[in-house]
Amino acid sequence: MDLTTRRRFLIASGVAGAGALAMGAGALGLAELLQTADRPGPEPAGDRASTLVLVTLYGGNDGLNTVIPYADPAYHSARPELAYAPETVLRLDDALGLNPKLRGFKRLWDDRRLAVVLGVGYPRPDRSHFRSMDIWQTAAPAAPATTGWVGRWLDGTGAGVEAAVSFEPVLPPLLVGRHRIGACVSYTGLALPSWIDPAVVTALGRPSPGDTEMQARAAVAYADLLRMGEVVAGPDPAPAIGADMPMSTATGTGGDNALGAQLSLVARCVEAGVPTRVYSVSLGGFDTHADELDGQEMLLGELDGALTAFADRMAKTEAGRRVAVVVYSEFGRRVRANASDGTDHGTAGPVFVLGHHVAGGFYGEQPSLTDLDDGDLKATTDFRDVVATALSSVLDADPSRYIDDHRATLMPFLPYP
Q1: What Pfam families is this protein classified in (predicted)?
Q2: 53, 129, 309, 320: which is deepest, by most CB within 10 A?
Q3: How far apart are CA 202 and CA 18, in angstroms?
Q4: Is the pLDDT of residue 1 over 60?
Q5: pLDDT, tens digit, for every residue of 183-226?
Q6: How far apart are CA 42 and CA 151, in angstroms?
């Protein structure tokens, strides 16, 4: 979500002037985040805590060219120039396969570490980017809500600001509660202009006797500026995730264009023992109204490279093996291609769930390509099933406390010991 729409959400919700921001919510730098490693997190804390990573694909990813119904004649008939030939698809069974750029995902599938939830959507679809993403992030499809579902979990657990962290350019509404709010930490860090002497900033960062409260806070801010720069520039214990992938271009629909960099920071925090239970990262650019094949393939290649490298890195540690990743987009695309070799805003699409404790396979039912709703797919899985499952299986929470009218939970997770 871009800066303008985020402001609209916060102003409309009343959060901007409410208790959440008054408590200093969101005021957390990377250096401070890493320093929370010795703090207990929301229950269950310590070695039993599992972690949820939410990956938002902004723009509306074309699910039919991601999880491809290659054996369905209706697929090839509806988009003859955009459809993938059966021999190019990475087959998952005799009906569905992955986009050829998702080779890492296919390996995770073969390892039973990737689940695909089919036909995910919400009642009475809305094709507006802003409204649809608002529905996904608040888990409230009936009417606009003032809080995100993770934000309500923060409220319910009384968690500190470090419990939910976004490495995106702006804080997503997902992490906004009524009284508490997550942290937004820039993955790029801060850099001093070449004409500023670091020694001067160092001097400004030293507190002096007799400082007023505001002067003392300013000194701390200068010190944090230098410390954050050192942390970001410091050596990473593993290569940057997805560093060899081409960078995509984010669009006005929101999201960022450096998923690998964001996931690298998530990995560092997990390995350092930071008590964050929810991370939010994003990849933008999926609004493929024209020339879709090349654009979506580039984006899916970046997604595949970044996420499979992250999954492999997480598998090396006990804390990493307790990480689950959920990948979603605000809506899918229409079944039929448009006249510009692209697809327009649609409805349902697949959701990916991956991790060491994921029970790989298909969940839900693939929507029909002939029984359509005004040219769009009919959702077969309510998105609140996904949210409820993440809350109960990963965050050890009662979904009924945080989402209304939640449905029966899916079971793509193996028990966490």
Answers
A1: DUF1501 (PF07394)
A2: 53
A3: 35
A4: no
A5: 988 766 555 555 556 666 566 667 777 777 666 656 655 555 55
A6: 13
